[in-house]
Amino acid sequence: MAVEMRKGRYGKFGGQYVPETLMSALIELEKAYGEAKADPTFAKELDYYLRDFVGRENPLYFAERLTEKIGGAKIFLKREDLNHTGAHKINNSLGQALLAMRMGKRKIVAETGAGQHGVATATACALFGLECVVFMGKEDIRRQELNVFRMELLGAKVVSVDKGTGTLKDAVNEALRYWVANVEDTHYILGSALGPHPFPEIVRDFQRVIGVETRRQIVEKEGRLPDAVVACIGGGSNAIGMFHPFVGDEEVALYGVEAAGSGIATGLHAAAIADGKEGVLHGAFMYVLQDDNGFIQEAHSISAGLDYPAVGPEHCHLHDIGRVKYEAVTDAGALEGLQLLSRTEGIIPALESAHAVQFASELAKSMEKEQAIVVCLSGRGDKDMQTVRDALGGEVE
Amino acid sequence: MKTLEKRIRESMAEGRKAFVSYMMAGDGGLATLKEKLLFLQEAGVTAIEIGIPFSDPVADGEAIQQAGARALAEGVTLRNVLGELERCKGEVAVPLVVMTYLNPVLAFGVPQFVEVCQRAGIVGVIIPDLPLEESGPLRDELDGTDIALIPLVSLTSPDERIKRITESAEGFLYAVTVNGITGERNEFGEELHSHLQRVKQMSDVPVLAGFGISTQTQVKEMGNHTDGVIVGSTIVEAFHQNELDRIRKLVQAGVEKFEIVNLH
Ligand SMILES: Cc1ncc(COP(=O)(O)O)c(C=O)c1O
Fold it and tell me: Fewer CB within 10 A of the end CB, N or C, for chain A?
């Protein structure tokens, strides 16, 4: 018999590859989200918190000195780094926390890699008085010690995961296991445009505010749409939020920047589109870093937030149809981009965002002076100071 | 009717409940697989569920995760397990079911996987991260083979959904007894018995309960409400500790001729 009920597909990617215990929670979430989306009071409530709590809308800033230094297209920065908690992650955490409350769930579980999504979720939970458990890989806890402390200050319980590789993918596994066991009163706030349907859609919609604001702001400043838009890709949430409102504008080139770690050829990287194969991880069919036996491989990047062995399903589709170009920048490149932006603009970007900055700087060189590039500056660099200092040997040349 | 269901029904007709033993392939080395299968067969299990280790086993609890990690360290893969099973084919008569996460199957290639399973005499497949909605492509490939696609139902599945799942079920229906992952449990929730009975009423194929069943008493208790049980973590642990007698006793408790124990 034909069992054709597949949902949440982006071309052939996406879907719902989860244990049966989670299926009714996903169906409930899909329904609740559909109702919330149709309810103007939900949008109003979210807007209120985005404005008065997060500080939106944030600026689209013309990076004049950077532009001059590079001597090509004009570079604009979408300042997600100025959001409360320091990154775009809060847009999604707030939206999903409000959604959880609509479903009558007052307990939250989340995973985190860099700690940014964990901090954003712990923040939303503190704001609304929700219980919060965050799973974090042991290796990431070591790399992002201060973010652990921040989450704890905000009242969240942080659980260390030492299984597998002790990084983000293992934290997602544990968060999923926890959710399976507590599904009746707990909502899982997934932190990127990943996971089983309806998560990729929900996360994208809550991050779309980035692109929607950018579109309006660039038209105000330049009187037209940008020629190119650039964003870094971990799971792909800041990028899909930024790209989505531009996907229909053929004249706008879209670039996603993956983490090339030590270089694609070394095998030590996190570039699943550049070097992955189709497969299923964490509930969705995507490009995944894996070996010939289908075992998932560890991702490598200097930035914990890009250290994930797959890329969200909608990006996989946008790659397949050629609408978005996916490029990769190495650890060394990201460090260069980070220093460049710090020196020329007085903005220290997150290491994740520095990948986008570096690629955009190269791209700008090949473009005309009248053209415009927008870079999604997804977060600020405060969290990375230890890592950057270690990588630069304690010295800035 | 596919072989697996037939064999379960045969033991039911003799007045026995089914006892399906899970084991992790290659825990202790792939070379020990055959000897363990023969041991379980000898102990009297109705069928054996052979777990394939995976890097990211989200549905599994501590004991099976660790067994999987040990097997991975031994270099065990879906491919070499199926190869080994093909070599044991003549000696193992008890029905064999493969339990694997989806990604290794996709990496293998779905048609190739089905073909090699057939060669190895596999009669059932359990894929914990493949719910009804996504099962179409594998189901199409299994169509016309003697391999049953065994679905899971959970405590959270609404009746209407359980009905839809049972409609396409083959072999048996795997009724998950807890919200959670595999692993030993001291006690089960109150609603479980009535849930299992409801599932049984809705199902045309035999219903077996699994997840967290670890003692002889629990084996009997679950058997009272279903057509049998699947026991995993305890057996995996017992093999690891080499406590073979514990396994024999559990199996006996499962397949003993009916004697309805009243627990309350
Ligand atoms: C500042 C920043 N940018 C980007 C990312 C990558 O995530 P995504 O690809 O979902 O935007 C992270 C993840 O932690 C982050 O903290």
Answer: C
Q: Is A378 a catalytic residue?
A: yes
Q: Which two tokens stand for residue A333?
A: 């490149």
Q: What is the pLDDT of residues B9-29, one digit of tens each?
A: 999 999 999 999 999 999 999
Within 8 A by CB and 6+ apart from B48, the residues are B20, B21, B22, B23, B37, B40, B41, B94, B95, B96, B97
Backbone φ and ψ for A133, nearest 5 degrees, come out as: -120, 130
Q: What tokens were used for B53?
A: 């280790």
> Is ligand 1 within 6 A of the CB of residue A114?
yes
| Residue ranges making up the domain that contains B124 | 8-252
Inspect the interface and report whether the beta carbons of B58 and A177 lie closer than 8 Å: yes
A252-264 confidence digits (pLDDT tens): 999 999 999 999 9
What tokens does A251 get?
């004249």
Ligand 1 centroid to A396 CA: how many Å? 25
Residue B24 domain flag: yes
**Number of folded domains that form chain B:** 1
Q: Are A304 and A144 in contact (CB under 8 A)?
A: yes
Closest residue CA from atom 1 of ligand 1: A379
* Residue given tokens 């099973």 in the structure block: B85
CB B161 within 8 Å of CB B134: no
The reply to whether B244 falls in a domain is yes
The answer as to whether B175 is a domain residue is yes
CATH number for position B162: 3.20.20.70
Nearest by CB to A21, from B102, B165, B176: name it.
B176
CB contact under 8 A, A24 and B156: yes
With H, G, I as helix, E, B as strand and everything else as coil, classify residue B75. coil
Instruction: Name the residue in chain A with its Cα closest to that of B107.
Output: A294
Which residues does A115 contact at the CB level (< 8 Å), separation at least 6? Answer: A136, A140, A144, A147, A148, A150, A151, A304, A383
HEC per residue, A218-282: HHHHHCCCCCEEEEECCCCHHHHHHHHHHCCCCCCEEEEEEEEECCHHHCCCCCHHHHCEEEEEC
List the structure tokens of B162. 């359980």
Residues (pLDDT < 50) of chain A are 1-3
What pLDDT is recorded for position B262? 52
Compare CB distances from A17 to B55, B78, B129 and report the shortest one's residue: B129
Scan for tokens 């609603």, then name that residue.
Answer: B191
- pLDDT tens-digit readout, B175-205: 999 888 777 777 787 789 999 999 999 999 9
Predicted confidence band at B258 (pLDDT cuts at 50, 70, 90)? low
pTM for the whole structure: 0.95
What would the two tokens of residue B164 be? 């839809």
* CB of A200 shorter than 6 A to ligand 1: no
